[in-house]
Structure formats: structure tokens, C-alpha cells
Amino acid sequence: MTDARSAPPPVISMRNVSKHFDDFQALKDVSLDVAQGERVVVCGPSGSGKSTLIRCINRLESHEAGEIIVDGMTLSDSKDSLEKIRGSVGMVFQQFNLFPHLTVLENLTLGPRRVLGLSEEDAKARAMTYLERVQIPDQAAKFPRHLSGGQQQRVAIARSLCMEPRILLFDEPTSALDPEMIAEVLEVMVELAQSGMTMIVVTHEMGFARRVADKMVFMDKGEIVETGTPDQFFTAPKSQRCATFLEQILNH
């Protein structure tokens, strides 16, 4: 049996984190640990704080109470802290957020060239490697408007991978897609999960959660109500709030 004291520290540690938007409290005293290589799925009703949680992890939102440590760094608003965090933590958004005036290849090479200092040649080679990984290398010369929604989201995933982050955050990555496009994006995410990438995924795709999650997190009204393995979560939820949510979403 492994001595718990010898276990590595979590790659993400949130302690008693709170966040307000004016009079609305989006996060209430949230604590969560994520281990290196762990796949965490966060779910809950709309307005429960899921997106705010992950946006605080890569400092798109700043928390006003508590502590967040990511990849050994305590998050602050200093420029040095922000640059390091953005280098370690990639994010995939609901609405793709691709630059419409740039080709797919240009979208992918922009960050590695400007932030990481890669040469144009090296950035292009890296971009093509990750376009191969998400199975759309033939789309490199196209503009985002010429792609399907599923293809655009795969480009967005490849763009994050081009920064070679240690952690990937997904904010409802399939919610803007037509049903037939959801499966192709989820397959890419499954492959990433199987490769050992540390992932936090905000999603209502419970089939995906059952397949890849190590840990389920259920949020409601800005609080983490319960966490558990997928087996525990889906077969024996501890709270009535979670049981009601699952009944609604699984029978939808």
C-alpha cells in the first residue's frame, strides 16, 4: 500500500474559493483537488457555477476569497503569474473562439509563435501534428466559416494542444453543436483522456462522463454538493439534489 504522505501534490488545488458578480455569488467556499492525469467532469444545473469554476482556474475570472494553486503556482493578477498559467492551462470554449480572418493553420500557429517564441516553420509543423491528431489536417488552409461546427471545435482543441499545456479545461464544448457533430468532438476528447491529459470538463454529456471520468463533481447554487467516482455518482448519489438532477438529465 502506498504511503499517502508520499503521494504527489495535486496539480490543481482550490481552497475555500468564493466569487461574486455584483450581488450574485457564483462560487461559495469551493474546495477541489485534481491530480496529474485525472479526468474530472463537472455537471449541474444552469447557473450553478460550473463555468465560473474553470474560468477561475486559468484566471479568466479572478476569485476574491480563498486560494487556487495550479501547477505549483498560487494564482494572482501579476503579469508573470498570468503568462505562466496561460502556458500551463489550455481552454476550449463553447463557441470555439477562432479568429475568423485567419486560416485554420494561422489560428493554430499564432500562440506558439507569439507566446512560446517558435519559428514559423516549427509552429506550422506543430500545428499540422495536432490537426492530424484531431483528424482534420486537410482543413489547414480553410477559414473557420467554411468548416462545420464539429470541425471548428476540433480546430479549437488542436489550437489549445499547440501550446502543449499540462491541463485542459473544456467549457461545455458540445453545447453549441448539432447532435450529429457532438460524437466527433467527444471522440477526440476521449482520445485525449486516454492519452493521460489532465482534464476538467464542464458538460451534460453523461455518456462521455461514464466513459472517461475518474471523478464526478456535482454543483448547485455555487457550491460543490458532492463528488465521487462515476459508479458511485450514477448508481448511488448521496444527495437528493444530485439524484433529481440525474433523473432529469438522463431521462431527457
Would you mind describing this structure in some detail?
This protein has about 250 residues and is of the alpha/beta class. It has a single domain (about 10-250), classed as Rossmann fold, CATH 3.40.50.300. The protein has helices at about 50-55, 80-90, 105-115, 120-135, 150-160, 180-195, 205-210, 230-235, 240-250, and strands at about 10-20, 25-35, 40-45, 65-70, 75, 90, 165-170, 200, 215-220, 225-230. It has a 6-stranded mixed sheet, sandwiched between helices. Strand 7 (about 165-170), helix 6 (about 180-195) and strand 8 form a beta-alpha-beta unit. Helix 4 crosses helix 5 (about 150-160) and helix 5 packs parallel to helix 6 (about 180-195). The longest helix has 16 residues, at about 180-195. The chain is globular, with a radius of gyration of 18 Å.
How many domain regions?
1
* Biggest sheet statistics: 6 strands, mixed
In the CATH hierarchy, what is the class?
Answer: Alpha Beta
What is the strand arrangement across the widest sheet? 6-7-8-3-9-10
**Helix content bin:** 25-40%
In CATH, the topology is named Rossmann fold
* CATH level-two architecture: 3-Layer(aba) Sandwich
Counting helices, strands and paired strands, the structural category is: alpha/beta
Shape: globular
Rg computed from alpha carbons, rounded to a whole number of angstroms: 18 Å
Instruction: Tell me the CATH superfamily.
Output: P-loop containing nucleotide triphosphate hydrolases
Number of strands: 10
Distance between the termini: 43 Å
